[in-house]
Every structure is written in C-alpha cells, then in structure tokens.
Amino acid sequence: MTTARKERWATLAGISAFLGGLLHVIALIGGADWIYFFHAPPSVVESARLGTWLAPVSTLLITALMWLCSLYAFSAAGFVRRLPLLRTGLFVVAFICIVRGLIFFPLIMIDRVWLSRLDTFELVASVIWLAIGIFFALGLRAAWKKT
Question: Which domain holds residue 137?
Fold first, then answer.
C-alpha cells in the first residue's frame, strides 16, 4: 500500500471524527428528543428537557474531544502541521474506538438478557466505532512510516 493510500485512511478518520462531533452539535440543537434518540444517558436527556447545563456542557465537551481527534487524524494525513505526540494520540484514539466497537459483540454472546434487549442503534453504533478505530489505526500506520 502506498503512502498516499495510507494517508487516505487518516483523512477518512479525520472526516469521521469531525462528523461525529458535528452530529453531537446537531443533536444538541435538536433538543431532548434528538438527544434521547442518540442514546444519551437519562440524566443528559433530562437536562435537555429541563434546560440545565449538563446536556450542553457534556455534549460540547464530547464534540471538542472528537474534533481534537479529527485534528490528530488530519495531522497524520498532512493537512495540518504535525501535532505533539501524534503517534501516541492516534494510538489511543484507535484503541478506544476499536474497544468500543468490539465490546458489543462479547456482551451479546455472554449475556442472554443483554441479547434480549438488542438494539439496532447499538449494533450500528458499534460497527461505526469499530470502523473509525480501524481508520485511525491505519492512519497511525501511515504516520509511523513517515518518521
């Protein structure tokens, strides 16, 4: 695989993380029903309904973290200057996303109660997390070979 092709993975990781952050902002603007739809914890949904600070602050914090991940991916792709601890950052993000994506599958195999509550949203979300984690891992591979 050529270096340019590997940089595409980092670009895809950056776009995915950016869109994830944007989705959080859209859900916040959409209100409590949107936040509920995206499976936020009940306390966050209630905060959105009551207009307290928990929903906007937690949502914007998650958005900022996702956009920071996006910056790291774009740095690996060469769109922004090299960020500090680039490989470490990409590794941590890839690891967290892959674990989040894979954790769903052992749970449904071991816990029949969990399986009975199988939710299409959770399955789709896990697949998306796994894909993004793989994008970051492949982006890390490209960043590793650059140095």
Answer: 3-146
